[in-house]
Amino acid sequence: MSTTDWTQGRVDALLSALDTYGMVMSRAAAEDLITERVGSVAQLMRTTKATARHYLTDEAIAGMAESIAFSLAEESPGAELYEAPRTAAVPINVVGRTVAGLAEACQVRFAERDDPEHAETRVTELVKCLSVLGTIASTEPTRAAAGAEGIAGESADVTMAFPPALLRRIARYLDAAATAADDGATPPGFDGRPEQLAQAFRDDATVLRILAEAGGPSGPPNLRGL
Prior knowledge:
about 230 residues, mainly alpha, Four Helix Bundle (Hemerythrin (Met), subunit A), 2 domains, 8 helices, about 60% helix
């Protein structure tokens, strides 16, 4: 069986498993998740991607679907994110990095010339998040960050409030861009190593998840830990 046929078969299995939770996902997004999981398993087990594919059994796919169902619920799928409660305090310097990260992710997706339709879908999602992020930033007042004293850079001492669901969604998209970069999709003119770009995406995604988590019932974020 070819890699493409195997991937499409796993995509079918994942979409079917998600359907049991009443969830719908595009084939492009499901393919991203399968590809990312194969890469993660290969890296964790220090084996080849071909070997890692053997671990994505029906039971593993069912577990993925369960995890996705609960994690995506935190992103408020289908909701108008601009109107969502803005309870996550994000330092201005992180806002800037997020804008840059989304722009870089768009370029990474455009580099996936082997599947233009898939790339267009991913870029559209990124641009929508960039639009919401920018719109909120243009209207949301800034605040002094509690506990931010001593952090290098004045931009870390000032925060803006964003919906945690938006931060989680952006983090997921950046993780997917990291996987694409690991597979060799890099922006035109990029002269660094793909794994460096991928790690930068993952680092930004981690920070956003920390801030999103802190924007929930647990209170304000510990900015010293970022």
